[in-house]
Amino acid sequence: MTLKSTTALGLVLGAAMGSGALAQDDALDIVFINDGHVAPYHVAWLSGFEDAIAAYDEAFPDIAITGRWLSAEGSLEKMIQQTEVTINEGPDVMFVNAINVDAFEPLVAQAQAAGITWIAVHSPMDSADYSFTLGDIANGRNQGLAMCALSGGEPFEVAIMLGQAGNPSGEARHAGILEGISACENVNVVAEQPADWDTVKAQTLAENWLTQFPDLDAISGVTDGYMYPSIAIAANSGNTDIQFYGYDGDIPIMQQMEGGQVMADILLSGTREGWNFVQMAYRIHQGEELDKVYDFFTPLVLTEANHAKALENGFPADVTVYYVDQALDVAANGYLEFGPDSVQ
Amino acid sequence: MTSTVTVNPTAAKAAISGLTLRYLVLAGLIVLASVGFSLANENFYSLVNIGILLRSIAVLFLVSMGMTFVMLTGGIDLSVGSNVAFAGGVGVITLTTTGSAPLGFLTAILAGMAIGTINGIFIGRLKLSAFMVTLATFALARGLALVIYDATSINVSDPTFLWLGGTSWGNIPVVIPFVFCVFVALSVLLYRTPFGRNVYAAGANFNTAFVLGRRPERSVVWIYALSGALAGLSAIVTVGRVSSGQPWSGLYLEFDAITAVILGGTSLFGGRGRLLGTILGVLLYGIIINGLVLTGTNPYLQSLIKGMILLGVVLLDSWTQRGKAA
Fold first, then answer.
1. Quick one: closest CA in B to A78, which residue?
2. What does CATH list as the number for A136-267+300-332?
3. pLDDT tens digits, residue range A20-66?
4. Does A25-134+269-297 match A136-267+300-332 in CATH topology?
5. pTM as predicted
6. Which of A158, A183, B36, B166 has the fewest Cβ atoms surrounding its Cβ within 10 A?
């Protein structure tokens, strides 16, 4: 190959690369800063986010869609540093699941001054451009109402595993569950303890409760992360009567609903949420007007038989319920609801 | 008896050379990491990013300097992170009830010192394990923080209280010159006073120091109190940085501080180490954390990389010390 032909080839390649770059002169860079990645929900969430980035980038070749996520591993200081560094990088959209929203107020203003769209995740912020919320109180209420309707009218003892003290999302879920339970008189809360979103602490709590309350009828949790050890401990102790009421829509938990002891779950699903983030960012980028407080669609999950039974016992008919198969399908395949087809 | 207290000049020279070598290695790693990260992302050397980097490690600087004193005695202080949350809570509550920022500062530092003094008395006077005592106060201080905050954050708007942690001169955070002043003051204390010589003596050989009348048990109490006071100062900086008092602030700070101090060449067994090494250790640690975020490194890999760097430096340290001893 001569020098001339090498130069010509270089020019052709350069032109081709240049035209490729011109074809993607529009860009959408999304960053998701999460408080941690300790639970199966987080893993599914981040995986859904990454899959959605790839799918949207492929489906819309005229826009270079990129994204990355960061985990603060529960440390407020680390999260603030990550946020400051990210703002300096100037992405288009930032999803921030703040450990404490008060601590992030100065950074919201800083991001907005840099032209970044700030989306507060789970805990709403007035100052944010958008808040992506879960409707935790309503979801908790639905879990509580389902418990009432499926408790059979007899005296019913339940123990509730809570989130980390002071965490707004965990406290909202807790308040909702209590509100739902208050609709019936037979359900009695015998214990409540924070498990700090930690499955090991949940395991200890479940062991203690099953010993301390031999007549315990149900364990309710503000996350499915607590259900894994609780179900295992009940199974190991031969307790096949106790019921479980979950929250998150983790696939392995929902798979234990048909003929199992898991009676109800709230279909957040990390995968769905990750996909919904990218869909939301894309819609904002396209100039679509969204509600400032964007509620993630989170139906209650019941088996068909339990739904029928619950309706007979006064469960509100207007609560959106997904049956297990449908819930498992959308939980596994986030693109069904939030993929590129949903915005085309 | 004499042989146990006589300083071997050759060994002392070797130890000094070992530390110097460590500092050169650290400085080299700092340069290497900076160049590498700046090649990966041109924003690394931007003034804004340098300001972010310095602000993010200011608290770690303060806590790590206290941890250096503690580790020079062969001890460890696992309570510093929780103590930052507790001392911040006391300071913020004082501020909100009295409206006085100076009183808030004072009580935050005194609260931090109180936890440190408890550690010191149990470890220095009662000769209990530093690991177990500070593990207990680690839980105790976090629990106290949650109780006094009622587990929720408290907004702070007093400009005086927020000044140290929240103000910047251009891109340089005010807290950095402050940290430098603390470094100078602690260096004088460690290298130019009898107290500093007692710190090294307590770490090199507690019993010998006792026989020589250096009162190491009293020194240990004061060292942990100093570590607590620095945790109190860190609490003030933290509150200023986030404009609020946070019951969960300082989480895992003790691990970062211990990592930085070990990186800086302070011996886990006491008696060897300098504040300069800790400063370099904190700087290297901060650069790595900042660079990993800036380069978009997969978060799953970040802990792995940090762990490998620490392990590498510890191995290098062991190797260079062995080389000097041979």
1. B56
2. 3.40.50.2300
3. 444 456 999 999 999 887 778 888 899 999 999 999 999 999 999 99
4. yes
5. 0.79
6. B36
